[in-house]
Amino acid sequence: MTVIEFNDVTKTYGRRTVLDKMNFSIRQGVLTGIIGRNGVGKSTLMKIAVGHIQATSGDVRVFSVNPFNSLKVSANSILVDDAMSFSDKLTLKDILQEAGRFYPNWDGPLAQRLFDYFGFHSNARQVDLSKGKKSTFNAIIGLASHCPVTIFDEPTTGMDTVARKDFYRALLKDYIAHPRTILVSSHHLEEVEDLLEDILLIHNKTALFHGPATDLQEMFVNLIGKEEKISTFIADREIISSQINGSYSEILVKNTFTSDEKSHLHTQGIQLVPVSADDAYVALTTGKKGGIDHVFNGTTAD
Amino acid sequence: MYLTEPRLTNIVKKQFLHKLNAYTGVFNSLIVMQLIGIFFGYGAGSGGSSNGGTLTIDYRLSTGDGPVILTLLWAFSMGILVTTLAYRNDAFSFISNRLSHNISSILFLLFASAIAGTLAPLAGSIIKFISLFQSNPFFTEASGLVSSPTDFSIGVMTSILYTVLFASLGYVVGSFVQRSKFVLPLLIAAIFVFPLLQLNMGGLDFIAKIVAFFGSETSLLLFLMKIVVTVSIFFAISIRVTTKTEVRK
Does residue B52 fall inside a structural domain? Predict the structure, then answer.
């Protein structure tokens, strides 16, 4: 069953287009990672999905209704992000209580255990927390609310390494115990890739890739072998990155080899090494400008 | 995982209770405002002395209006305050849509206005009370709870209704300001330009008419109706203007 559906969704702020005719759908109960570079519209997409902001054009459906101003969507979804704020008159303890009154699936004991584990003080105020602590506190609310659609936008911002690992582990455990549709955005794919079932890769204002992480990996391949031998194979192929280690070259290219070509590569002593999802993601999104090195090489390329 | 089918009334109730907990700062500022009102009401009283040969009359006028006026100012600013970005974002951290947020905010304003409107005349009584002790008077003119309960309760009613009126005015102004950043400069310009225009258009009494519309009403029932209609219009406009606002941008 499809829970979130975007059809030709465009979002513009003034003249700036953030999402451009985006299409994708998320099935129920899938843990999906929303991956993309800074400022590609990950947060915008999430805010549209929970009805905080409205799409400029196109059709958005969450639980088959338009999320904007839908009480049904609001009651069955939660968005955890930096903008999640609470009155400074409420202590952390009060906020957990309030959350319990609002969310019908609220898991009070879990919230309390996480609250204690991460060492929060009951009488502290959310506004006084450090960045990482605030993220952790918001994440606890996101986890314990057990909403059918739970969305985390850069949940680990400011968290230290231990807290990040703990959070992702908590997320996974809670997801297994209470399967639901979860979206997690991150620009650190390597941090979340083990967790995710699907990846939705946002690039150039649109969904560039949507599917299992393994499919993303299989889009690319690393060729390792003697430089002079490799060069004949890659003459008419787009090289995404290359590295020369002594007499061996490591070339990242699109995995469009036929099985004949693959066996040919083998006979020439060239290895085909699978790439990590992270490398594939970088390859897909780096663009053809030659990367940051190009900026510093100062080539007066025209 | 099953889906919840929320009812608007249920969510509004939750939000209203939440706002009672979350907006307590509003009541702190009310107390401060009324204390200032008592201070001014007592201190600003005019006085004097009449000498008619052998008879000297010392008189002193204290007014209980100070707290009421400051309560109205407070109500207006509270109306604006609850429409601000921070309050809206807080509301959308839990279950909410624009309609439920508006309705629960309006209920909160009505509740807070009822409290403030009741306290204002009581604060006025404090001024009378202090005056009574300090100046050892022969004559005092005051309608107190004990001396004339009907007058006093009419006073409280009127005070509540005025407070509600100002709170709703603040709310509608705040809603427009939130809608577009051009509203605020326009509004400030209007405040200065409007009276100037009046002089030429012969409509100097436009504002006076508005004041008279409420102020000269002698029937409590008619006054009540005037307020209810005006306030309902203000709130309806506010709900209409904010129905497309984006939150937590």
Answer: no
